[in-house]
């Protein structure tokens, strides 16, 4: 299907575009035709997923490829636990698609609206000191390069490209399918508790290393961390899910409905933010339940926001967060959104924020009707002083010159880009900024 481009907006309302045209391919061959046609016409091509990136990474001023129809399970190797998915498959569809095979993703983030290709290409991750981001679970993929050719990358085909294409920023081609290494389905016991912030910081490194999945949120203007500890259990253990009404009260009425109202009010009357934050940390974060992994990892987020997230050496997290806390207090800002702190294992994907080091993540947010620039720039300076690497799908100000020193394999990635897309058919202004021309 082809249509005249309408205005496209991302979820965070940080980016808009009016593509020259929109195409909706349903097969790999249709993607090839779209890419080849765009090349002949001298137009650039960008695939778009769910629009959950806050950066302009998916902005398509030329041809926008909407991969919604390129969805579903293509193949399953039940013996190896490997599932090949069409690139436009949404993460929230995976529990239903994987259930017949008794499989699950090894780890997930807390949002599941993204496509599998979009999530992996931007470096989406969950938490857990022993687990990598979603892209580390890729064992093979197929993409259409700048010449319109299908390129298969796996452990046995073009294997040298795997560390680049797993997390390729959409700069290397249009991914049409991804093969994911899954694990047997499992339960998670979730324990959510409010704890003193300093105590949480003091124990962060140990808990990140010893707990399966540990993270915490800190509401500015409080001295309390809302900790979340998820422990992996066999599927044979008894489930104890949250009651439907209780979950609705916590996750919808309080975390979304009431919170949306307070964020909106805070843009007009900032003084309401600190007392609400103190109230929020008393009303939330005190639960113990056990359920299938996707139901525990994922939380519905309907309050629109803007986000910046930085990856730093894990050992630097307590000091860096203390500096962010001091910054907010010094500037007298009223910050309604909590700061999120997570971790991930080191991996070998060239542009992974966790490349080559045990990593901690600090994410800051602002309500989408507030200007985040001053807050984000100041926090970014702190993170850069700790050797930080920005999440590719979240707001930051870095450019290629700055990022080259942060990634030991940066120039190797650029060389792969030269090989797969020498004419920069898949470029846009964001990629020009972070990767160079």
Automatic annotation (TrEMBL):
PROSITE patterns xrefs: FAD_PCMH
Pfam families in alphabetical order: ALO (PF04030), FAD_binding_4 (PF01565)
Keywords noted in UniProt: Oxidoreductase
Residues covered by the FAD-binding PCMH-type domain: 15-185
Keyword Oxidoreductase among UniProt keywords: yes
InterPro entries linked to this entry: ALO_C (IPR007173), FAD-bd_PCMH (IPR016166), FAD-bd_PCMH-like_sf (IPR036318), FAD-bd_PCMH_sub1 (IPR016167), FAD-bd_PCMH_sub2 (IPR016169), FAD_lactone_oxidase-like (IPR010031), Oxid_FAD_bind_N (IPR006094), Vanillyl_alc_oxidase_C-sub2 (IPR016171)
Cellular-component GO terms for this entry: membrane
Single annotated GO MF: D-arabinono-1,4-lactone oxidase activity
The keyword Cell membrane appears for this protein: no
PANTHER family, per the entry: D-ARABINONO-1,4-LACTONE OXIDASE, L-GULONOLACTONE OXIDASE
This protein's name: L-gulonolactone oxidase
Protein source organism: Leifsonia poae
